């Protein structure tokens, strides 16, 4: 891999790590924030929505901006704005200011992931891109693993405002890394930002017949796999295990599976190829979801979530590579639409599972989810094909 590509991957990985910390850092401190502002915990919990929904909505716009005004510029502006908004949250005098700061962070964080992946797609040859994306996903997974525990330690030590101050400081560190690491690299082919250019980018992406399979697949992954995650603690409590730390350990198993994928992606590609990875991913996710509903001990649940993580990234990582090739001239937009579909799936999933649990029962609802996930893997294996000229 060329040295400049390695530099870009390191900087992109740091940016994704910071984004993942932003995503997971608020959940453990919601009770503290509610107590500080003397508010209902369920109302304060909307801080998660304040981040996730803008994140999903902003990605297509920021991805398009990356393809026009420049990916590096969008990356820098996103990091600076994240830092400012997080510092604003650290000193928020009331809940409304905190909510607004969280929403701003969600908007600009929506630009970090697709831009980082698109930069890697620009520099890394397609036959090496799966491995490069695996390393970037490992950085994001590290942020997911450390986000909640780190926030808990900080909050118990200096209070919830310290959490916002620390993640803001890390965004500043990431910005400095971008300035130094990408200096002297001609990464952007900028064009003038015009609505016609934006519309043309959307047409270029959606004209590719593979787009509908890629975007629908990640939407279904988000809905029927990650949509189950908010109910993990509830399912454990129903079996008599109501310790929050155990639910956290179980969910952390998913990230461990992501690390296993990152370390084994080269071997998997060599042994079973892309098509085999897609089928394997769907099968592992389906089996894992079925096991989650079976009511085993939490130690088994941890192992199950490791399997879920490995299965998810085996399929999701292949889909991401195809997304980068939907429209090379609008790669940032393609990655943004991919992320947007995925996060909308995560927003819809809990609603679907709640309805299913109430009307079908836990076992039947999870079996439906498992069938959908297996179908996604089979569909992708059947429909996603690389053009012979690539």
Question: Brief overview, please?
Answer:
This protein is mainly α. The protein has helices at about 5-25, 30-35, 40-45, 45-70, 70-90, 95-125, 125-160, 160-180, 195-205, 210-225, 230-240, 245-290, 300-325, 330-360, 360-385.
Give the secondary structure arrangement, pairings included.
Elements: H1 3-24, H2 30-37, H3 41-44, H4 46-68, H5 71-90, H6 95-123, H7 126-158, H8 160-181, H9 195-207, H10 211-224, H11 232-238, H12 244-292, H13 298-324, H14 331-359, H15 362-383
Helix pairs in contact: 1-6, 1-7, 1-8, 4-5, 4-6, 4-9, 4-14, 5-6, 5-8, 6-14, 7-8, 7-12, 7-13, 10-13, 10-14, 10-15, 12-13, 12-15, 14-15
If you had to describe this structure to a student in words, what would you say it looks like?
The chain has 390 residues and is mostly helical. 83% of the residues lie in helices and 0% in strands.
Largest sheet: none
Estimated structural class = mainly alpha
Q: What is the overall number of helices?
A: 15
Helicity level, as a percent range?
Answer: over 70%
Quick tags:
390 residues, mainly alpha
């Amino acid at each position: 891999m060329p040295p400049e590509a390695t530099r870009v991957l390191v900087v992109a990985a740091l940016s994704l790590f910071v984004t993942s910390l932003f995503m997971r850092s608020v959940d453990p401190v919601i009770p503290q924030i509610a107590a500080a502002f003397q508010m209902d915990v369920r109302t304060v919990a909307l801080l998660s929505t304040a981040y996730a929904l803008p994140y999903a909505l902003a990605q297509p716009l920021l991805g398009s901006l990356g393809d026009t005004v420049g990916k590096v510029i969008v990356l820098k502006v996103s990091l600076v704005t994240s830092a400012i908004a997080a510092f604003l949250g650290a000193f928020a005098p009331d809940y409304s200011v905190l909510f607004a700061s969280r929403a701003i962070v969600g908007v600009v964080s929506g630009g970090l992931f697709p831009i980082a992946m698109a930069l890697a797609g620009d520099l890394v040859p397609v036959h090496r891109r799966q491995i490069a994306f695996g390393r970037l996903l490992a950085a994001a997974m590290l942020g997911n693993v450390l986000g909640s525990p780190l926030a808990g330690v900080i909050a118990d030590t200096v209070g919830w405002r310290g959490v916002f101050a620390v993640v803001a400081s890390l965004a500043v560190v990431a910005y400095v890394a971008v300035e130094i690491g990408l200096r002297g690299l001609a990464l952007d082919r900028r064009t003038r930002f015009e609505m016609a250019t934006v519309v043309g980018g959307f047409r270029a992406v959606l004209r590719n017949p593979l787009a509908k399979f890629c975007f629908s697949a990640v939407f279904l992954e988000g809905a029927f796999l990650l949509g189950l995650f908010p109910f993990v603690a509830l399912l454990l409590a129903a079996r008599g295990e109501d310790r929050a730390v155990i639910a956290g350990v179980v969910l952390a198993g998913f990230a461990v599976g992501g690390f296993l994928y990152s370390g084994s992606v080269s071997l998997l590609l060599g042994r079973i190829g892309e098509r085999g990875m897609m089928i394997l991913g769907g099968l592992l996710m389906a089996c894992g979801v079925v096991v989650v509903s079976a009511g085993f001990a939490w130690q088994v649940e941890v192992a199950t979530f490791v399997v879920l993580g490995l299965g998810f990234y085996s399929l999701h990582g292949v889909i991401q590579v195809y997304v980068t090739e939907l429209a090379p001239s609008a790669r940032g937009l393609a990655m943004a639409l991919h992320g947007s579909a995925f996060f909308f799936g995560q927003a819809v999933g809990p609603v679907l599972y709640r309805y299913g649990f109430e009307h079908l029962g836990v076992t039947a609802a999870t079996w439906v989810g498992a069938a959908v996930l297996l179908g996604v893997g089979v569909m992708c294996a059947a429909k996603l094909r690389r053009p012979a000229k690539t």
